């Protein structure tokens, strides 16, 4: 990236398009509406609650992130999206049962006004769902064209000056990149030929990039993390980011594992299991969809711990991940972790973690932050893969020549330093030289 000479102001309305108007999307929308009416705080949102230090510690200059960089205000956001079910945002929020009725009722009218556009749905990619509110197309190229027309109509009807999109849909079946994903030309031919490795998520992403709409992928699907998408994003000068919102169990892993490594404590095993009962849990009950999530979750520890460098500590690590669909739990997921570690002279120790979390409550601030920061990136002239947004993802994208950074604290430092650099402020290295200047 080149440092911008000028960052365009966040003037006018920002449209936030959400493929998948389910629990995560409606929790995000309702939360933003409640926050801007003074009925709640956007807790968990880095752009709304976070601060950044500028200059030396002795200068005592710390400001809100939203004061450092020109991000859109909550009052300027217009929400829309697609879904394979016809429920408006109010009914979808009630069905999701994440927020209490007393909260949803406070923004009843606004939620009722958000009706999903018909969704892209090839059922082979999400086998546990049966969509009733779907598009009909002659081929996948026609499907992309229809999504592009939806985007234009939303921009026009809602009088939006800019748009961003964040995938909030279900986890799709596991797909490996094939020849069709190697270049723009091959992908375009694949759309015409209904290539089976082009999924629903890829169709939304392709349409958004073609319409110059920044796109973030909040699921572990193969979506924008392949060469054809990177090439298209560069050609159209569109920022993209992904993948898989960092919530729940993986969030804890990216907090705990860096601590073990920093103290040079060894690990013999890390067993993780989850129970959840929302639509995501239902989808993940299909082994093909679970495989996509499993790959996303399993890569975290290896990249943080670097067993090739620390063979005596981590080379033999056994890492297991399980997810069970348990309808009574709804969106209130419960995760158990058993960690077998060892210390001085190899003596064994254990840590047990029981995290009773709310997936959509943890994901909603990430959706908001990604929407605002991708819009900022576009106005700063950034395009292509936005690795500095890795903080928000379980399986962040990285340049082909390097491995992704998973350590939450390194990710946060990189994000804040990018914001400082973007605005012409000094990047902070934490060398502690301020007392010797």
Key descriptive features of the protein:
437 residues; alpha/beta; Rossmann fold; 4-stranded mixed beta sheet; 17% strand
Plain-language structure description:
The model has no long low-confidence stretch (mean pLDDT 93). The chain is globular. Helix 7 crosses helix 8. A 7-stranded parallel sheet has the order 5-4-1-6-7-8-13, sandwiched between helices. A 4-stranded mixed sheet has the order 10-9-11-12. It has 2 domains: 14-245 and 360-422, Rossmann fold (3-Layer(aba) Sandwich); 248-356, Dihydrodipicolinate Reductase, domain 2, CATH 3.30.360. It is built from 16 helices and 13 strands. It is of the alpha/beta class and 437 residues long. 38% of the residues lie in helices and 17% in strands.
Oligomer class:
single chain
* Biggest sheet: strand arrangement: 5-4-1-6-7-8-13
Regions with little confidence, pLDDT below 50 for 5+ residues? none
Outline the biggest β-sheet.
7 strands, parallel
Gyration radius, to the nearest Å?
22 Å
| Class by SSE composition | alpha/beta
SSE arrangement, N to C: EHHEEHEHHHEHEHHEHEHEHHHEEEHEH
Count of alpha and pi helical runs: 16
* CATH-level-2 architecture of the largest domain: 3-Layer(aba) Sandwich
State the fourth-level CATH superfamily of the largest domain. Answer: NAD(P)-binding Rossmann-like Domain
Summarize the structure.
Helices cover 38% and strands 17% of the residues.
Topology record:
Blueprint: E1 14-19, H1 23-36, H2 46-49, E2 51-54, E3 61-64, H3 65-68, E4 77-83, H4 89-96, H5 101-106, H6 108-112, E5 117-118, H7 140-157, E6 162-167, H8 184-192, H9 200-210, E7 215-217, H10 227-235, E8 239-242, H11 248-262, E9 266-276, H12 279-284, H13 287-305, H14 311-314, E10 318-325, E11 334-342, E12 348-356, H15 359-379, E13 384-385, H16 408-422
Parallel strand pairs: 1-4, 1-6, 4-5, 6-7, 7-8, 8-13, 9-10
Antiparallel strand pairs: 2-3, 9-11, 11-12
Helix pairs in contact: 1-4, 1-15, 7-8, 7-9, 8-10, 11-13
